[in-house]
Amino acid sequence: MKRSWYAAPYAVWMALFTIVPLLLVCYYAFTTRSGAFTTENLTRIFDYAPVLFDSLRLALYCTALCLLIGYPAAYFMASRDMSRSQSLAVLILLPMWMNFLLRTYAMMTLFENNGVLNTLFEALGLPRQQMIGTEGAVLVGMVYNFLPFMVLPIYTVLKKLDPRVIEAAEDLGANPVRVVTRVVLPMSVPGIVSGITMVFMPAVTTFAISRLMSSGMIYLMGDMIEEFYITMNNRNVGSAMSLVMMVLILISIGFLRKADPEGQGGGLW
Amino acid sequence: MVQDTRLIELKGISKSFDDTQVLHSIDLYIRKCEFITLLGPSGCGKTTLLRIIGGFETPDEGQVLFEGADMANVPPYRRRINTVFQKYALFSHLNVFDNIAFGLNLKTPEALGVKTRRQKREEIARRVGRMLKLVKMEGYEKRSIDQLSGGQQQRIAIARALVNEPEVLLLDEPLGALDLKLRKEMQVELKAMQQQLGITFIYVTHDQEEALTMSDTVVVLNGGRIQQIGEPKRIYDEPKNAFVADFIGESNILSGIMREDCLVEMLGVEFQCVDEGFAKDEPVDVVVRPEDVMIVGEDVGMLTGTVESVIFKGVHYEMMVNTGAMRWKVHSTTMQPAGSRVGMSIVPFNIHIMRKEA
């Protein structure tokens, strides 16, 4: 038997659960309920432009925050002190071992009106804060869920960085700040690109996190698509929206690919 | 030429990693324009010593003085020292030009003797061009680093360090990754560059031939201790102990007894030598270089033996001659067939007597 046959179960799986659904999405997107060809489903997206805009905006904020928090963490983890970095790596990975819904529910209990944080505020004599329902809470939920996807590819790239290269930069007169800006950052671009992709893609189609953390006040494209499919039982518009999201993601991957043409960022996608 | 001013002084440098002490109270001075080589087997502490001078390691004890000033709190980026790293450590995200220009780019226009940023760019281009010419890599400015061969990367690493016009250049086994022919060429070129630029070179290698070829001064290290410091010829001709004799060049080392001044007994035979100042009947190590053993007729030799093996080495033959008590390594341009009986003789000048190591 040829080696290529070993991949057959996976090929069948792919066909059943990726290719067929994709084709179905395309089919529904361009047809009416009765099955006639139409482009109206696609133009409906303009009615929901604010939702789309919010989704993109929040995904961008989330990606930026993940990068700001994740890069220094990855940098620290990749530093020479192995024992400490290992335990930090475990801490970063630990939440990933749990389902994201569980994690989000746990976050809710922190931010609720009668939640842990508000109880703490009260004990400190501070006024209670309405946090659930704000964009901030949604953003915190998203960052919490997606942070590991930013840290890991950057960590991988930084870990591979030859310490002698950093010494060479110091040797040539670079102070610690310049070592980072002139050598470490440019050399970790592949990891950053990979991290941005890994965070931005799922973030832009976030659902559930937004609904749970805002008790339904903030609607993102993911929630919208879910609603069209499930609540409104309108596969056609739902599919059209999914298609638009997919195209948007493909375009953004295209741009990011340009920044890392050799896919050195750990090739996680 | 080597000047008498002491540029760098190491005083009582000790260093341990975990529980292993790699340097034991090293005292050494390095003069201006000197080409000094730290030579020793791997693990002898030579690279650690170099890294201490570069500022990448801090000594546990002792001082590094640069023109008399203590360097303890001076980080690498403020030392007027540049390094050519083992395996080069070039910046893979920059092309050849930007690699060489890295150090200059970090300087202010004033430091390069110009006023505006635009002039700085021109000055950098001029200096990088000059360096590329020096290392014979003109026209490679836009190449990326991974398009270069090992020898070319080597040259770029040297150019990247030298362009900053350092007082001292540290070289950590810079030719280790090159093939023999290229290594020989680079040895000559490095020595020429050093003399042309008048920069102090501190060179680390485990290759004794390299050390002897290039250096003004060789420092032989073993087990974190300095074994001998001296000019190459002196170290080769008058090794201070059995380790140095064995490490520098090939040698026959045997035990002997000093019967009186200029008379040593080894293998039961008394030999004339030129060393004095030993106690009567003091046990000593005797070193004879393979090329200093002369093959003579069996009847006139001071020692006689049987040729056990013959290997053709290019310029000479290497023969192992068994005298019964000892197997001698002999280099000669004339070949004696294996199995033949030969006599050997050694002139007094070529017998090196060393005190036994405690």
What's the gist of this structure?
The complex is a heterodimer of chains A (269) and B (358). Chain A is mostly helical. Chain A has 13 helices and no strands.
Would you list the SSEs of chain B in sequence order as H and E? EEEHEEEHHHEHEHEEHHEEEEEEEEEE
**Count the strands of chain B?**
20
> Which structural class should the secondary elements of chain B be placed in?
alpha+beta
Number of strands of chain A: 0
Strand order of the largest sheet of chain B: 6-7-8-3-9-10
Would you write up a description of this structure?
- The complex is a heterodimer of chains A (269) and B (358).
- Chain A has a single domain, classed as Orthogonal Bundle (MetI-like fold), CATH 1.10.3720.
- In chain A, 71% of the residues lie in helices and 0% in strands.
- Chain A contains 13 helices and no strands.
- With 358 residues, chain B is an alpha+beta fold.
- Chain B has two domains: 237 residues, Rossmann fold; 106 residues, Nucleic acid-binding proteins (OB fold (Dihydrolipoamide Acetyltransferase, E2P), Beta Barrel), CATH 2.40.50.
- In chain B, 24% of the residues lie in helices and 34% in strands.
- Chain B has eight helices and 20 strands.
- Chain B has a six-stranded mixed β-sheet, sandwiched between helices. In chain B, strands 13-12-11-14-20 form a five-stranded antiparallel β-sheet.
- In chain B, helix 2 crosses helix 3.
- The mean pLDDT of chain B is 91.
- Classes of the chains: A mainly alpha (269), B alpha+beta (358).
Features:
heterodimer, A: 269 residues, mainly alpha, MetI-like fold, 0% strand, globular, B: 358 residues, alpha+beta, Rossmann fold, OB fold (Dihydrolipoamide Acetyltransferase, E2P), 2 domains, 6-stranded mixed β-sheet, 5-stranded antiparallel β-sheet, 8 helices
